[in-house]
């Protein structure tokens, strides 16, 4: 999404994702398994495949947007919830990532070959900053403090394949999560809250763009006697 830097804090959700992914790496799981390389394709065939895949996703998304009513009213919780529902349908039918899934995927791909826990956590911080996410809860500092405690106890850098050491770190992370009020089972709720924030930000952007377009149109001579319509009355389906 293009509006991540404008959203409210996502620290709780991001910290939950970080902890769960690091926990998953303590044992072999699909998130960090190296998949078999796909069969080699010639350049033209690869480009054609990518183009057809993108075209299919685009047409699927447009098909959903032509059917669903969207009200451009970011100040209305019901309109925001409806827009979030429509965009979820778009993602499901077009097989697109949600924002939290995109964060997860970025973490997985960027960290799968990192051998030690310290570099892993520093990479998570780098990802957070680059994506415009905030850590208002101070989760990163607490997680690093937990790592410092474990490494002091085992008297060496903690490697991610060290099952005993990782178990100690996970126990410390459980204490951090409890202090922050983060529970793995609540992640779907955090994701829903995140999608609602994204939906509201996107509707605000749509409203801004619509108002700017109408104001520009009203300056033209042929529209000087026209009244500007309420953006809430606009039906996006008529413009697709």
How many E strands? 0
Question: Distance between the terminal alpha carbons, to the nearest Å?
Answer: 20 Å
Secondary-structure content class: mainly alpha
Task: State Rg.
Answer: 23 Å
Instruction: Give the averaged pLDDT, no decimals.
Output: 80
- SSE series: HHHHHHHH
Low-confidence stretches: 1-14, 16-36
Treating each run of at least 4 consecutive H or I residues as one helix, how many helices? 8
DSSP helix fraction: 55-70%
Tell me the strand percentage band. under 5%
Please describe the biggest sheet, giving its number of strands, its sense, and whether it closes into a barrel.
none
**What is the approximate shape?**
elongated
Task: Summarize it.
By secondary structure, this protein is an all-alpha fold. It has helices spanning 11-24, 43-65, 77-94, 99-111, 117-130, 139-154, 163-180, 187-218.
Walk me through the structure:
The protein is mostly helical and 240 residues long. It is 62% helix and 0% strand. It is built from eight helices and no strands. Helix 4 packs across helix 5. The longest helix has 32 residues, at 187-218. The two termini are 20 Å apart. Keywords: Coiled coil. This is Probable ATP synthase 24 kDa subunit, mitochondrial. It comes from Rhodamnia argentea. One of its GO terms (biological process) is pollen development. Pfam families: Mt_ATP_synt.
């Amino acid at each position: 999404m293009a509006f991540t830097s404008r959203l409210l804090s996502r620290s709780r959700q991001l910290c939950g994702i970080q902890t769960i992914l690091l926990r998953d790496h303590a044992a072999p799981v699909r998130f960090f398994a190296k998949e078999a390389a796909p069969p080699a394709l010639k350049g033209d065939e690869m480009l054609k495949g990518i183009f057809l895949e993108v075209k299919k996703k685009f047409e699927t998304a447009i098909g959903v947007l032509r059917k669903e009513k969207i009200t451009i009213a970011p100040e209305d919780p019901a309109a925001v919830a409806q827009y979030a529902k429509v965009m979820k349908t778009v993602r499901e039918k077009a097989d697109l990532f949600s924002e939290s899934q995109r964060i997860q995927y970025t973490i997985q791909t960027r960290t799968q070959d990192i051998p030690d826990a310290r570099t892993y956590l520093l990479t998570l911080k780098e990802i957070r900053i680059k994506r415009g996410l905030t850590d208002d809860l101070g989760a990163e500092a607490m997680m690093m403090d937990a790592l410092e405690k474990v490494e002091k106890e085992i008297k060496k850098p903690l490697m991610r394949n060290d099952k005993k050491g990782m178990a100690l770190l996970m126990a410390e992370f459980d204490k951090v999560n409890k202090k922050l009020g983060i529970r793995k089972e609540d992640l779907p709720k955090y994701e829903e809250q995140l999608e609602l924030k994204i939906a509201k930000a996107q509707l605000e952007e749509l409203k801004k763009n619509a108002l700017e377009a109408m104001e520009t149109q009203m300056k033209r001579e042929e529209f000087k006697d026209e009244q500007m319509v309420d953006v809430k009355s606009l039906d996006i389906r008529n413009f697709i």
